[in-house]
Design brief:
Radius of gyration: 19 Å
Number of strands: 13
CATH topology: UDP-N-acetylmuramoyl-L-alanine:D-glutamate ligase
Largest sheet: 9 strands, mixed
Strand content: 25-35%
Number of helices: 10
Strand order of the largest sheet: 5-4-1-8-9-10-11-12-13
Length: 327
């Protein structure tokens, strides 16, 4: 069982402050429409939502950045937005949270990814997506490469947040991982593509159970199949570590043919939206702050337990993590 003594925990959380992490990936905006349901529509068998309020949150790669900022880090972001109202609102929200926007690239041929969720009585009723998935132009890809490599030089670590919207193409992934290897910087990958070979030589890859099954071709039904899937992916990617997040079953960390299970600490689960973003943000920041990868996974597990107890896209703070560990 992985544990952290109280004095070391306090020092690690304190050392989160001011660390610079570069996040490269697919930026999104999460809209939430909150309301109540009292009746069914006479036009179709669907609920009528009486809207009470609306809220706006950073999503996708931007949610990773928001989690880092909430933990006291100084994140830098590289991603693509459109010349549209969604892009303007995303930029405004980042500025409001005092997050740097100098790595954002505008593409007039794309729309900003916006996900609109309708919530009634703490339950998600439906979701509407507006986004562009077509490949980026060569000019935008070149700009992404140049900007990412420039900002990486200012940072202590790197997170690749892949939502399969086109930003993290294999050439960019390979160059960034190679540069981190050369400079001794920790690089985490939150994957989406089924071909994990594009993340070869990353420090850690953090798939959820479904992503690990798809990438390995192994259905995870018990400890044996979990071990087979994890060791196969670790061997194929040559990553230093693999962390499979398993929802209510916790997490399992793989390294050199060994696995360490971390039980879930969530007491109530209201919404899993963005929990993977919280995990990769907390884990990476903890390692950069001086934690071992096992200790970092332990803290990331507690951070995930905090955010799933909240409705909507959410972040964990250092105070909430410390309270969870000590409870």
């Amino acid at each position: 069982m992985i544990q952290i003594n109280p004095s070391r925990l306090g020092n690690l959380l304190k050392d989160f402050s001011g660390k610079k992490i570069l996040v490269v990936g697919d930026l999104m905006l999460d809209e939430f429409i909150w309301g109540t349901v009292e009746r069914i529509s006479p036009e179709a068998p669907v609920p009528i939502i009486e809207v009470v309020r609306e809220s706006l949150h950073l999503g996708g790669c931007a949610n990773v950045v928001a989690n880092l900022a909430a933990l006291g880090a100084e994140p830098l972001t590289v991603g693509v937005i459109g010349n549209d109202s969604g892009g303007e609102r995303l930029v405004s929200e980042m500025v409001r949270q005092k997050i740097s926007v100098r790595g954002l690239i505008r593409d007039a041929e794309r729309s900003t990814s916006v996900k609109t969720r309708i919530i009634a009585h703490r339950q998600q009723v439906c979701r509407a997506d507006r986004e562009t998935r077509k490949p980026l132009s060569n000019a935008i890809q070149a700009q992404l490469m140049k900007t990412s490599l420039q900002l990486l030089g200012e940072c202590d670590g790197l997170i690749l947040s892949d939502y399969s919207k086109g930003v993290l193409h294999p050439e960019l992934i390979g160059h960034l991982i190679d540069r981190c290897r050369e400079s001794g910087k920790f690089v985490s990958v939150d994957p989406k593509t089924m071909d994990f070979s594009v993340y070869r030589s990353a420090s850690i890859i953090t798939p959820n159970k479904k992503e690990a099954e798809q990438a390995s071709g192994i259905t995870i039904t018990d400890d044996s199949t979990l071990f087979d899937a994890g060791t196969q992916l670790l061997r194929a990617t040559r990553a230093d570590y693999l962390l499979i997040t398993r929802g209510e079953e916790g997490m399992t960390l793989f390294q050199d043919g060994r696995q360490s299970h971390i039980p879930t600490v969530a007491r109530e689960v209201f919404d899993v939206t963005g929990a993977g973003d919280t995990v990769v943000a907390t884990l990476t920041l903890a390692v950069v702050a001086g934690a071992t990868v096992a200790e970092a996974a332990f803290l990331a597990n507690h951070a995930a337990g905090v955010v799933v107890g909240k409705v909507g896209t959410a972040c964990a703070t250092r105070e909430e993590i410390g309270k969870s560990v000590n409870s």
